[in-house]
Automatic annotation (TrEMBL):
PROSITE patterns: PUM, PUM_HD
GO biological process per UniProt: regulation of translation
Lineage: Eukaryota, Viridiplantae, Streptophyta, Embryophyta, Tracheophyta
Chief place of localization: cytoplasm
Pumilio-type repeats, residues: 88-123, 232-271, 305-346
Subcellular location: Cytoplasm
One Gene Ontology MF term: mRNA binding
Keywords (A to Z) from UniProt: Cytoplasm, Repeat, RNA-binding, Translation regulation
A cellular component term, taken from the record's GO annotations: cytoplasm
Domain PUM-HD span(s) in chain numbering: 28-370
Entry-linked Gene3D superfamilies: Leucine-rich Repeat Variant
Name used for this protein in its record: Pumilio 12
Length: 370
């Protein structure tokens, strides 16, 4: 094979084909390499089965050995090499980024080409169709998009990615694969770059919080959001806390926010939940929320509601509520003797009713604390 007509790139191909993909063993034996790389226009060649489906470079990129071969060529850091490979794969860039082996070439190519070619790639992936979204929910494409985010984090071209993701924000946040692309943005990019994603999170928070998978993504989002948008999002959750606290999945968002231990936000939440503590204590998710309140600065509000309620006996005998009352007794014992004593007096009034069922747990703990 003679590549002398294309200078150093030809020499590079000669070196690699002799060491790595010799004509005797190469799956591409018989291909006219010099014609393929002699100009910027993709040419198509017959495959061994007589078909004419593919450009040789994209065909190579879709195989394990071929992808490694092209990656070694790119490692030369010769712009002529990267530009020629780019010219061959550009029309197939989406197919490349979601392919098991092709994705490696895509990931290396985006850090090898210049800004002009990067812009061409971004326009190809976003203008006519949202290929960034489709790649994000693909098991291989997901890795390509995350690499793209890292590669573009200091480039104005990152706006292409952010806009594409924000347009499909709720779909990505509820997808088991796509959610990680959103979280990658939060981990890698600054708050100003992510602002559009922050806005979409506030717009979709209620629906996402009620979604079995979306609530997990939303909690991860809340843990990562930075800047003034964090306060806006937390206050929005406060505005809806009574609804979220009573929702089987939304409840976990409230727990996440309380876990941030923001004094002003938590005080507002604990105040807004007054009147619901008894009811929440007898629900599976709600009981965890009330226990969390008891372990933080909401303890006095919760216990005060218990003491003033004629429903406490039902909480004590409930499969979930009895654990809440146990936590109330333990926490108040450690932190506030006065309110602990008031709770003890309230429980003593119904001690005889706690001989059976879950009430026995309280009776046993009650005696051990005396």
């Amino acid at each position: 094979m003679d590549f002398s007509g294309i200078g150093s790139f030809g020499s590079c191909l000669d070196d690699f084909s002799g060491k790595y993909m010799s004509p005797c063993s190469c799956m591409y034996h018989g291909v006219d390499w010099s014609n393929d790389f002699s100009n910027g226009n993709p040419r198509f060649y017959a495959t061994s089965d007589g078909g004419y489906p593919s450009n040789i470079v994209i065909t190579m990129a879709m195989t394990e050995d071929g992808s490694k071969f092209l990656l070694e060529l790119l490692s030369s850091k010769d712009s002529r090499v990267s530009n020629l490979i780019f010219s061959r794969v550009f029309e197939f860039i989406f197919e490349l980024m979601i392919h098991q082996f092709g994705r490696y070439l895509f990931q290396q190519l985006i850090v090898s080409v210049d800004e002009i070619r990067l812009q061409m790639i971004m326009e190809k992936l976003t203008v006519a169709e949202n290929h960034v979204y489709h790649a994000s929910v693909h098991k291989y494409g997901n890795f390509s998009v995350k690499k793209l985010i890292t590669a573009l984090k200091r480039s104005p071209l990152i706006t292409y990615v952010i806009k594409a993701l924000s347009n499909k924000f709720e779909e990505l946040m509820t997808d088991p694969t796509g959610q990680y692309v959103i979280l990658e943005c939060l981990d890698v990019l600054d708050s100003r770059t992510n602002d559009l994603l922050y806005v979409r999170a506030m717009e979709g928070c209620l629906e996402l919080s009620r979604h079995e998978r979306g609530v997990v993504s939303m909690n991860a989002f809340i843990a990562r959001i930075k800047g003034p948008r964090l306060d806006q999002l937390l206050n929005w959750i406060c505005d809806n806390v009574r609804f979220l606290a009573q929702d089987p999945t939304g409840n976990y968002v409230v727990q996440c926010v309380i876990g941030l231990e923001n004094p002003a936000i938590n005080d507002r939440i604990f105040s807004l939940l007054e009147g619901l503590y008894v009811k929440l204590s007898m629900a599976k998710a709600g009981s965890h929320l009330v226990e969390q309140c008891l372990r933080l600065s909401g303890m006095n509000r919760v216990i005060s509601e218990f003491i003033g309620s004629d429903q406490l006996v039902f909480v004590v005998k409930d499969r979930y509520g009895n654990y809440v009352v146990q936590t109330a007794l333990k926490e108040s014992k450690k932190r506030d003797a006065r309110i602990h004593a008031s709770l003890i007096v309230k429980l003593e009034e119904r001690l005889d009713c706690l001989r059976h069922g879950y009430g026995r747990n309280i009776r046993t703990l009650f005696k051990s604390l005396q």
